[in-house]
Amino acid sequence: MSDLFASNEVEILDHGQGLFQIRNLVNTEATMAAIHEVAKQAPFRHMMTPMGHHMKVATTNCGEYGWIAQPSGYGYSRNDPESGQSWPAMPDTIRTISDDVIAHLNLPKYSPDACLINRYDIGTSMGRHQDKDEANFDYPIISVSLGLPAIFQVVGPKRQGKATYYSVSDGDVFILSGQARLYYHGVNTVKANPNQPELQQRYNLTLRRSQP
Ligand SMILES: O=C(O)CCC(=O)C(=O)O
Ligand SMILES: [Fe+2]
Predict the structure, then answer these.
(1) Is the full-model pTM beyond 0.90?
(2) Does residue 185 register a pLDDT over 60?
(3) For residues 92 and 145, what is the distance between their CA atoms, to the nearest angstrom?
(4) Does 54 belong to an annotated binding site?
(5) Looking at this predicted complex, what is its ipTM?
(6) Residue 59 near ligand 1, beta carbon < 6 Å
(7) Is 46 annotated as a binding residue?
(8) Chain segment 78-102, per-residue pLDDT in tens
(9) pLDDT value at position 179?
(10) What is the DSSP letter of 198?
(11) What CATH class is the domain 11-208?
(12) DSSP assignment letter at 9
C-alpha cells in the first residue's frame, strides 16, 4: 500500500508498561453527536481549581459520577455542581467504546461509571498530572481523542523527568493500565491543522471507574 494514504484500519500499539494505543477504534461522528447531546444538558465550563485558577480545558461529564475540580478539592460527584442535577447518563455510543477496548486488549471486564469530557480550544494544553481520584487503580483509564490531533506525553511515576511523546488523532484511544495506571501524563498545546481548517477543537473523553 502506498504511504500517501493514511490507514483507517484499527491498529493496536503496545507501548509497554501497560500503555496501549488503539488507532481508529472509535466511530467519531456518532461519538461527537453524543458529546453534543451531553453538553446540552451539562454545558462545558472552566472549573475552578483548589489553587484558585480556572482550568484551561473546558469540561463536562456523563455517567453516574463526574470528576470535578472545586475550590475545596478534586473528586467525583453524583451531581453537576452548576445545576445540582445528576450528570447526563452515559450514552451507549460512549459506553461501548470501553467494551471494545476491553475486547481488543483482553483486559478484565469492568464497567466505567464516569466519563470526563474535555474540550481543548486551539492553544490549550494540559499539565502533567496523575489520575488518582478513583477508588481502585486496578481499573484502567481509557482516553479517547476526537477532532484536532494532539501530542500526549507520558512521564512515569514521578512528575519530573523526560516524557515520551505519542501522537493521538481523531478516533484513537489511549489506555493507561497496570504499572502505567498512575503515571504522570499531559497534553502539549493543541495546534490548528492547516489541512483541516474547519477543525477548531480537540475533544477528549476519559472513561473511568470512580467507585470500588
Ligand atoms: O486529553 C487527553 O488526552 C488527556 C486528558 C487527561 O489526562 C485527563 O482528563 O485526566
Ligand atoms: Fe489524566
Answers:
(1) yes
(2) yes
(3) 17
(4) no
(5) 0.99
(6) no
(7) no
(8) 999 999 999 999 999 999 999 999 9
(9) 97
(10) T
(11) mainly beta
(12) S
Query: Can you give the pLDDT at residue 4?
Result: 58
Written as nine digits, the cell of 90 is 452515559
CB distance 169 to ligand 1 below 6 Å: no
Ligand nearest to the CA of 188: 1
Phi and psi dihedrals of 92, rounded to 5? Answer: -55, -40
Name the residue of 26, 143, 146 whose CB sits within 8 Å of the most ligand 1 atoms, as the mutation to test its pocket: 143
The percentage of the chain sitting over the pLDDT mark of 70, rounded to a whole number, equals 97
The region that residue 16 occupies, defined by phi over 0 for left and psi between -120 and 50 for alpha, beta otherwise, is: left
Contacts with 6 (C-beta within 8 Å, 6 or more apart), sequence order:
none
Nearest CA to ligand 1 atom 5: 204
As a whole number of angstroms, the distance between CA 144 and CA 56 comes to 19
Check residue 18 and give left, alpha or beta (phi > 0: left; psi -120 to 50: alpha): left
| Residue 34 grid coordinates | 453524543
Ligand 1 pocket, residue 119 CB under 6 Å: no
Domain boundaries, the chain: 11-208
Note whether 157 and 11 are within 8 A (CB): no
Residue 205 is placed in which grid cell? Answer: 473523553
- Letter for the amino acid at 142? I
Is 131's C-beta closer than 6 angstroms to any atom of ligand 1?
Answer: yes
Is residue 208 part of an annotated ligand binding site?
A: yes
Residue 83, SS3 per DSSP? coil
Amino acid at 39: A
Report which of 174, 111, 172, 107 is spatially closest to residue 141, judged by C-alpha positions: 174
87 in a known ligand binding site: no
